[in-house]
Amino acid sequence: MALILTFLGKSASGCSTVAIATAKKLAASGSRVLLVSQDSTPSFDALLNMPAQSFPTEIEPNFELVNLKSSQLLSEIWTEFKDLEAKYLKFPTFKSIYGQELGILPGMDEALALNALRKYQEGGTYDVIIYDGNNTFHTLRMFGIPGILNWYLERFRQIFTESDLGKTLVPLIQPLISTILNTSWTLDDLDKVSSDNILQEGNVALKDSNRVAAYLITTEDKAAIATAKYFWGGAYQVGLSVKGVIINQSSELSVGKYFDFGQLESFSLPKKVGNNWKPLIEALPDFLDKSSTPLSINIDTATSQIKIFLPGFEKKQVKLTQSVSELTIEAGDQRRKIYLPNSLTGKVVKSAKFRNNYLVVSL
């Protein structure tokens, strides 16, 4: 299974430059690398002195580059859907609608990119896949899709199964589902949907820093530092592990003086001069290091205490709400759902305090 790497930082902090240097470093060491860009501007073209294609193209030995085009990805998925429909249904409904006729709605870019990454990862062609998105906000939203969709599925599944509309529609859609999946299906089966599916697998993958990991990128600019810390907490809100911080265009002497990223290891990168990538490549961390990252959640049932790793935020920036069986943590622009074990279900939150980048909740 390929390792997926991504970089989080303020615009113009050098994420694309670091992504390219990382690809060069790993490819030179023997890893088969795919650098995935979703940047519609010609920035990669300028950095690599060659156009980025919409299909994987070899740049150097072991190093391929692809630029994702949302309109093309949508057309490919729509074609696959119509092929399945024609295969399983006697009278296909969407055969006269073509992917080229469909526009890209807000949010589609992230979903299409995540699906593309999944396909590349499962293809077995690459050891490392490096993702460089349009910006970090979109990247975090993309990696948060499995958790968010699982959340929506749970909410709407309950509404659907309990509503008169759901009970009315089931007799109509059951034959269709049975035909497509070649299996029997009832309303009660909806309760099993989220226990073993691609969304659940996505959540599991995100929690394993040896399968999906991120590094923060910043410069010596105060706004870039503050933004990197903000994205640090945002990453853990969507379940994405951060393994280190790369300080771009800096000197080693300035790292300890100006930066405070807690237990994160910092790496100083010199400024790139011309087309000379060697100094950057030599200064980069060992991205294949198997060291663990802090646990995002630690639930101690004996003390009725939950520790949530939430770096980069202050208590006043965090909103905590509770239902009978779950907690919702709202910080930055993300919401995170924490499901309580049976022994803590029904207990009321007594206190919530910040300690060493953890939100400690006592029930």
TrEMBL record:
Entry superkingdom: Bacteria
Domain ArsA/GET3 Anion-transporting ATPase-like span(s) in chain numbering: 4-249
Residue ranges of every copy of the ArsA HSP20-like domain listed in the record: 305-362
InterPro entries (UniProt xref): ArsA/GET3_ATPase-like (IPR025723), ArsA_ATPase-like (IPR053262), ArsA_HSP20-like (IPR040612), HSP20-like_chaperone (IPR008978), P-loop_NTPase (IPR027417)
Family according to the record: Belongs to the arsA ATPase family.
Entries under PANTHER family matching the protein: OS02G0711200 PROTEIN, P-LOOP CONTAINING NUCLEOSIDE TRIPHOSPHATE HYDROLASES SUPERFAMILY PROTEIN
Name of the molecule in the record: Arsenic-transporting ATPase
